[in-house]
Amino acid sequence: MHEQELVQDTYDELTDIYGEDRVVLEPFIEGQLSFRPDLAVLDEDLDEFFVVVECSTVISEHREREDLKELRRLMNHSGAPYGALVSESFEYVFKLIPGEDGEQVERELAGFPSDEGQERRILESAEEIQMKFWRLADYFRGKIGRDIESQLYHSLFRKLAAERHNYNLDIDNLSEEDLTEIDELIEQKYPPFQPQRHQHDVELQKQVLNTFYGIDLDKTPPKLAEAFVLLEDQSQRGAPKTTPLWLSKAFLDLSETGEGDVVLDPAAGYGNILREASARGADAHGVEININAVNSAIFLNELFGTNVSYTAGDYLKLSQVDHSLPTEFDQVFIDPPFNLHYEKPDGTPARNGDEKFVLDSLERLKPGGRLTVILPVGKLYKRRSSDFRETLRTEYTIESLIEIDAPIYDHTGISTVILQIANEPSSPSDEISYAIVNSDEDPEQKIPAIIDDIRLGKADTLELRRLEGGSYLPSEIIQMDKTSRKLQQQYDKVEEIQDVAKEIRGGTKKPDQVFEEDSDHRLPYVNIRDIQQETYSEFVDVSDNIVRADETDVLVSATGAKIHIHHPEREIAPSSMWAVVRFRTEEEALVYAHFLDTELARNQLESMQGGATVQHIPIRRLRELLVPEFSEAEIQDKAESIRKRLEKIADLEQEQAQLQDDLEGLFGGE
Fold first, then answer.
1. For the chain, how far is it from start to end, CA to CA, in angstroms?
2. CA distance 297 to 301
3. Which of 130, 295, 99 is nearest to 204 (CA)?
4. Which of 560, 553, 602 is nearest to 574 (CA)?
């Protein structure tokens, strides 16, 4: 709808209510020549402004802020007691009242023209909820910390509970005692809610009551209630505290959760997965360590009208026979804190808390039950997670695997993987359904389609035995298969590079002392930029702690998005950004340096890259790179051919430089 159409529709609606004499298009307001409201309604005597109206088809935080700022200014200049912002999906009618510090604040009149709030209405649209959140976030910007959404949920819960249980929250006379009493009521009626008080509690509560004045939260339809969950995304304040709604639904679709299933989420956050499971008929249970998240989840549970049981506490410290939870579950869903550090029973720290979430939860599954989890993709290939992978492969059945190269969460660029694991023994011949979401694809669009294919048996599969002893990444396995086939077509013998090279190791961490000048007892300290600029800028003293590389080595960039290959012409000290592959002879290093620069090798190297923000290739994975194995005679022959071609390239470059000089000489250049 165009804005002119919205203005006309609003004009027609207002004239039906107030008559044509009282409704004016773009009225002139004295002293406000630069800005006129789209519409105004006059009082019954046609002498004064009754309400000024602005229409907008563009809903954004900036546009809403500017429209309301102008409306407030016009109300003050025109004397109109009421203002209204109208869009296609909501009408926001308000009056201005004194705030905490004497400034004017808005009080919505949901039942306008009555301003008593006696006749409550339901919320009209997701856009209306979004707009109200913007108003509150704008008002409290700089006053409230990063956890504004949980404080907002708490204030809304007070409003919901007060109306349900006939407790009067008087906006104009609200006190700390009122909040204490309503919190005690919520704590009694909605366990395990635990009230959390904040510095601006009374002020925020008043503003929430003003903004949602006359709104009946209890009648919010579940589909519309989803807009409240999206408030956290709008807040853009650090890591999310719950699984996105679309991903929650995808998890449940993949597991085919339904009526009567007993379901657990041990890192429940705001409870998105559990509410959706409850809506599908499951008996849903959640554990959450963050009490603000628990309180928020209980409020959203009441808002959605779902039935979810919550336990406030640290799941990793719960006993397997904890009586607050059922003894066995049909389904477990986990979106754990990534790379979580936790404390073992003996008091020693550990960094693989996300793995412990998975392993502890698998023990709570019924035989044949399923666990669905999203994890950092590094869990499928990093050495420190090898025991975790082998436990999943040998003691349980990995049913499906979705590799996601595009970021799921806005706050991090970590690639992730969705695993579905059944609590039943596996066989090496088991087929694992898999799919890959590429970095240029939208996970929110792609993953539901992938899950449909998995459920219908249309997805590609890998035999479980293919995972043994190596990376579990489908993209890497597929790339290695393609490369292996191509190499075997071209060469008699193909091996992993660790079986061909003499040694593979990392470079040298930058020492405390580096020098700008070379000397007999120093080596160039070489970073990738030094190779690109063809000059050395830093030098280090030779010592036993320095990794040294010479003509028998090939350097492979272990860090950075772009793959670099370098064959040194003199002895150097490669930085830790390099992996150093040592061969037995200079000729062998020369040959493999040029092979590693081919498309076959680069495709493998790129598939081995991992990392959230900085791409890198672990040395362990580099050792598995497939290369042809050449005989000594082939090495000598290829090395000689390479040198001849390099000499020819050097001659051509020199000739090109001379020709360029000759061209400049035609015009008098020197």
1. 68
2. 6
3. 99
4. 553
What is the rounded distance in angstroms from the CA atom of residue 383 to the CA atom of residue 276?
36
Place of tokens 């956890």: 147
Sign of CA pseudo-dihedral 61, 66, 69, 74: negative
In 246-295, DSSP assigns E strands to: 262-265, 283-288
pLDDT tens digits, one per residue of 446-484: 999 999 999 999 999 999 988 887 789 998 888 888 888
Whether 471 contacts 434, CB under 8 Å: no
What is the DSSP code (8-state) at residue 509? P
User: In the chain, which residues have pLDDT < 70?
Assistant: 1, 31-34, 100-102, 113-119, 141-146, 231-241, 319-323, 410-412, 610-614, 669-670
For residue 653, give every residue at least 6 positions away whose Cβ sits within 8 Å of its Cβ, in sequence order, or none: none
Write a three-state SS string for 133-183: HHHHHHHCCCCCCCCHHHHHHHHHHHHHHHHHCCCCCCHHHCCHHHHHHHH
Are residues 497 and 581 in contact, defined by beta-carbon separation less than 8 angstroms? yes
Q: What is the pLDDT of residues 277-332, one digit of tens each?
A: 999 999 999 999 999 999 999 999 999 999 999 999 999 888 665 667 999 999 99
Tokens of 434: 């898999």
Q: Which of 73, 111, 118 is nearest to 94 (CA)?
A: 111
Which two tokens mark 159? 């409003």
pLDDT (tens digit per residue) in 585-601: 999 999 999 999 999 99
Q: Is 410 helix (H, G, I), strand (E, B) or coil?
A: coil
* Size of the chain in residues: 670
Question: How many other C-beta atoms are found inside a 10 Å radius of the C-beta of residue 125?
Answer: 15
Look-up: residue for tokens 């190596």?
A: 470
What's the CA gap between 365 and 376, in Å, rounded? 23
Measure the CA–CA gap between 472 and 401, rounded to whole angstroms. Answer: 9
Q: Yes or no: say if 604 and 473 are a contact pair by the CB < 8 Å rule.
A: no
Nearest one of 541, 559, 666, 567 to 612, comparing CA atoms: 559
Beta bridge partners of 421: 371, 398
**What three-state secondary structure class fits 609?**
coil
The pair phi, psi for residue 109, each rounded to 5°, is: -115, 85
Nearest-CA neighbor of 272 among 232, 242, 302, 236?
242
Encode 391-408: b = buried (16+ Cβ within 10 Å), e = exposed.
ebbeebbbbbbbbbbbeb
Is residue 441 within 8 Å of residue 415, measured between CB atoms?
no
User: Which pTM value belongs to this model?
Assistant: 0.80
Handedness of CA 474, 399, 340, 149 (dihedral sign): positive
Give the DSSP per-residue string, 27-52. Answer: ---TT-TT---SEEEE-TTSSSEEEE
| Structure-block tokens of residue 491 | 């060469």
Tell me the two tokens of residue 501.
């090279």
Residue 315: exposure state from Cβ atoms within 10 A (0-12, 13-18, ≥19): buried
Check: CB of residue 479 under 8 Å from CB of residue 603. yes
The rounded distance, in Å, linking the Cα atoms of 212 and 162 is: 13
User: 554 with 585: CB under 8 angstroms?
Assistant: no
